[in-house]
Structure formats: C-alpha cells, structure tokens
Specification:
3-stranded antiparallel sheet; 6-stranded mixed sheet; 42% helix; 14 helices; 11 strands; alpha/beta; Rossmann fold; 17% strand; 373 residues
Length: 373
C-alpha cells in the first residue's frame, strides 16, 4: 500500500517531483500555483484535483499522456487510466528531504512490488512562508538553503583591458608582435583588446533593531551568503550605532560567522536611529569611496526613532554617489501596507528599488534585482 500524506502542500510538491522525474518540466511558480489551487479544491475530489494539476503544471500538449499516467499512479494508486497488467503497478512513497544528504522522514517498506520513491524538499513548501512564522527547525532548513545563494553586483566596465577574440577594439601591440615572431616578423594576425568587466561593489546595511527581530536572523544569514561569496561585498549593521561586520561575516563557516558577528554587535534588538547611522556611514565610508558607484542595499522595516529630515538628507547624499539604492522591507508584503512610517516615508523618494524581504522566494528575487542593478 502506498504511503499517504494528507497535507495538500506536501501532496502537491510530491506530485510535482514525480513529474520532474518523468522529465515533465514543472517550474517552481507552477508548483506554487498548484499548491494554492489544491488548498481551494481539496484532495478528495479526484476530478477537481486532476484539472487543478493539469491546468497549472502542464504547459505542453505532448506531456499530457505522461501526466495522466503519473496522476493515476500518484493519486489513484493504479497504473494508468484504462488499465494494463497488474505486474506493472508501482508503489509510490513520499519522502521528505530534511538535509542536503537526502535523509527522509519515512521510507518504503520492502516488498515484491516495484517502488517509486518521490522525494521533495521542505524548502519548497517554505519558499513563500513569512520568516516571522518560522519554527526553529524551519529556520535551520532555510539557512541551509541560503548557503546556495550567489549574490553579486551587476558587472560594469573596467579600465583593465582583456584580450578580444574579434578584430575590433584597441590594437594590442605586444601580443601582435609576439605572435608575428612565428611568421618571420610578419604581423599575419593582429591582436586586439577591449575593456573588461568587473562586479560593482555591493554594500549591505542590515537593521537589527527590535522591530526587525522576527526577520534579522534570516536576513543576517543572507548577508553572510553575500559576503562569503567574495564578490566585493561590505556589510554593516544599523541600530543605535553603526557596526562594520565584513570581517566577521567573511568566514565560510556560517555558524562561526554568526557567532563572531553577535559578539561584535552590541545593539541587538534595541532602538533605531537610521538617520544618524546612515550619516556615520556616509561620513566614514560611503561618500569617501565605499558607496561610489556601488549597489547599496538597506534591509529595514523603516521604523525610526530619529529625525526623518536627517534620514532624508542622508539618503539623498547616499543616492548621489551610489549607482543604485535598494530598500528591502519585510513588511511590504503585508496586505494593505503603505510606507507611512516616518523613516520609510522620508527615505522612499531616494530609493531606486523597493522590494520585499520576508521569505526565501523574496530573497531569491532580491538576488536578481541586485545582479541587474
């Protein structure tokens, strides 16, 4: 008998994994849509489940036949609509991946029937869940997933010249002469160079005040993923004071990085003085060079006890030297949210990108915003 998992979320993800194993393309957005549809129609009405799955997961007509067989095996525990030999029946087992090694919370009982084990990742079910609602186990799983993130600023033209394989650009006399030695001194093939690319510096400013406490732990892990990637990244925390944590965050070991950062930062879960801390950043690092031509990302809910005019002034200063300023607000996803907090309202006119930061999916979108800034 197949193992039955009653949760619509897990059933949806398990079925999507089965389709992927059968080489049917099921992108994450389609799986999330199917999960939402399944939460509305339930899992008892097989006809409703069939059409919910088919309309959300199938994008090519040639995949329908494979889909029908997979649906019959997964949802109805039989081979195919129309039937075939009982010898071909498969047992379907759902297994939950709890870590990168693929351990599961259940396994199939050995038997005579061929068994198809469908594995799915708990991260997929967490992708849209708000960090504030995470349990400790879910946060641990999300932090493991964040080690895979690659956060890098968008490329820009460099003054350094690199070889150009096409006959265009700037003539490279040294390489041309060197190549001509093999042809008796005749420059048979001319060589050229062109301006290379390098990543823009990325500066991350994380608000660690009391109002950000439900999100600070996850966002700090995101900051570590960016800094540990060695892509010209600087990191600071903002609270009642400004603390540079780039060195602490540079460790490849995330536990060590978070522990040393915790020891360095003295104002966890305190008040917020965004205007004053941004002024310190601009005066000591930003305007002097660190923020010039850089992508600056501020991760904060915008709640500020300081003077909003000071915050507006410092955001304007920052905007003049930075290539792009992105503000990540975990509260932006809240239904009916409007940037009415004094700090957020003061800063918003000087922000180029105003994005969400409440979930894994939102952080993945943030990496794309950064990479194309």
């Amino acid at each position: 008998m197949a193992t039955v998992v009653s949760s619509p979320e897990r059933m949806a993800v398990g079925f999507a994994r089965l389709l992927r194993r059968l080489e049917v393309a099921t992108p994450l957005d389609a799986v999330l849509t199917f999960m939402n549809a399944l939460s509305l129609v339930g899992i008892d009405d097989r006809r409703a489940v069939y059409w919910a799955a088919r309309t959300t997961l199938i994008r090519h007509h040639e995949d329908i036949a494979v889909f029908d067989k997979a649906f019959a095996v997964f949802w109805e525990h039989r081979e195919t609509p129309g039937g075939a030999d009982d010898a071909d029946l498969q047992q379907v087992t759902l297994a939950l991946d709890t870590d990168d090694e693929g351990s599961s919370d259940g396994s199939a009982t050995p038997g005579d029937e061929p068994t198809l084990t469908v594995r799915f990742s708990g991260v997929e079910t967490l992708s849209t869940k708000d960090f504030a609602a995470y349990s400790d186990d879910e946060m641990h799983l999300a932090m493991q997933w964040m080690t895979r993130l690659r956060v890098a600023g968008a490329p820009r033209r460099s003054l350094r010249q690199v070889p150009n394989m096409r006959p265009s650009g700037r003539p490279d006399m040294r390489r041309t002469v060197r190549a001509s030695l093999a042809a008796g001194g005749e420059p048979v093939r001319r060589r050229f160079t062109t301006a290379g690319d390098k990543h823009r510096r990325l500066v991350l400013l994380l608000d660690i005040s009391g109002s950000m406490e439900p999100y600070a732990r996850a966002l700090l892990r995101f900051v570590h993923a960016a800094v540990a990637g060695r892509q010209r990244v600087e990191a600071f925390t903002l609270g009642t004071r400004l603390t540079r944590v780039t060195r602490q965050m540079s460790s490849k070991d995330p536990d060590l990085a978070l522990r040393t950062t915790g020891e360095e930062v003295q104002d966890w879960s305190g008040g917020t003085r965004l205007g004053e801390t941004l002024r310190l950043f601009n005066d000591q690092w930003g305007v002097r060079g660190m923020a010039r031509g850089a992508i600056v990302v501020i991760l904060s809910d915008g709640w500020d006890r300081g003077d909003p005019l000071l915050l507006a002034e410092q955001m304007q200063r920052l905007g003049r030297v930075a290539h792009r300023v992105t503000w990540v607000n975990p509260l932006k996803v809240t239904p009916g949210y409007a940037p009415l907090a004094r700090g957020m309202a003061a800063a918003l006119p000087y922000v180029d990108d105003f994005v969400e930061g409440h979930s894994l999916e939102a952080l993945e979108r943030l990496t794309k915003v950064i990479s194309r800034a």
